[in-house]
Design goal:
Order of helices and strands: HHEEHHHHHHHHH
Keywords: Membrane, Transmembrane, Transmembrane helix
Protein name: Integral membrane protein
Low-confidence stretches: 136-142
Region (Disordered): 236-255
Number of strands: 2
Organism: Streptomyces murinus
Largest sheet: 2 strands, antiparallel
Helix content: 55-70%
Strand content: under 5%
Strand order of the largest sheet: 1-2
Transmembrane segments: 15-34, 55-74, 80-106, 118-141, 153-170, 177-196
Radius of gyration: 22 Å
């Protein structure tokens, strides 16, 4: 374990990336716990206000992201300064992406249906950073044996193939499959081989003159969404909290 840690984390200079990812995930988890306690009126935590203005946590998040980002650029990846800057950057990024939906919609949608986009942004970001962290670095590691070079070449070839398949899956409108397929073998292959979603770039390019294929894609997307959307929402609710009911959808509400 110690040899692997030195070879794949310390020597390639990946320790700051690991610290940033850990700080990012922990910040998101802690922030969601605190906001859910505030929402429920439990615990000592309260919203921060200044002069009647509610201060969203994206504000200190932006400051920490800027400080940590510039600090990381100015620091050595192998030094304590780079590690500290990475932690600061990870904390700031966690606070910012936890309110990604607010930035996207330019309004407070934290506990609304649109607020789910923040959870998706955090999960996808963590997955992509995890891919960078898990990937082997052929450069920056000295004195590799022939066996290590062979293993790394195989891994790099697999990552490249998964990346191409992920691009195909992405063009077919399968965003989550594309992202996780770049990490988990064969997931991207499944997404690349299956029918594209009817509103995807692939469908517009290749199904335009194939009405049967477009009809099959539409039907499959309908059944897929009907089966998996409730489960996906349940997972998002467990991670980020259940959104407030939409007044327009309540009995007697406007539609």
């Amino acid at each position: 374990m110690g040899h692997w840690w030195v070879r794949n984390i310390i020597e390639p200079g990946k320790l700051p990336l690991l610290l940033a990812l850990t700080a990012f995930v922990l910040t998101f988890v802690v922030t969601r716990v605190i906001t859910r306690l505030i929402r429920a009126g439990k615990g000592p935590f309260r919203n921060v206000s200044a002069g009647g203005l509610h201060i969203h946590h994206v504000v200190p998040g932006v400051v920490l992201t800027v400080v940590g980002g510039f600090g990381a650029v100015a620091s050595d990846r192998h030094g304590a300064g780079g590690a500290l800057a990475a932690v600061v950057f990870g904390i700031g990024a966690g606070l910012v992406l936890d309110e990604f939906a607010l930035i996207l919609h330019l309004q407070d949608v934290y506990w609304t249906e649109e607020g789910r986009q923040s959870v998706e942004a955090v999960v996808l970001t963590a997955a992509l950073v995890g891919l960078l962290l898990a990937g082997f670095a052929p450069f920056g590691v000295n004195d590799l044996t022939q066996e290590e070079l062979t293993d790394r070449g195989t891994v790099i070839a697999n990552i490249a193939a998964n990346f191409v398949l992920s691009l195909v899956a992405l063009s077919k409108g399968k965003t989550r499959t594309a992202v996780f397929g770049a990490i988990v073998p064969l997931v991207a292959l499944v997404g690349a081989l299956r029918l594209a979603r009817p509103d995807s770039l692939w469908a517009r390019r290749f199904y335009g003159r194939r009405p049967r294929a477009r009809a099959r894609a539409t039907l499959r997307a309908y059944h897929h969404d009907r089966r998996w959307t409730p489960r996906s929402r349940a997972v998002q609710d467990w991670i980020g909290g259940r959104p407030d009911p939409d007044p327009a959808r309540l009995p007697g509400g406007r539609r």
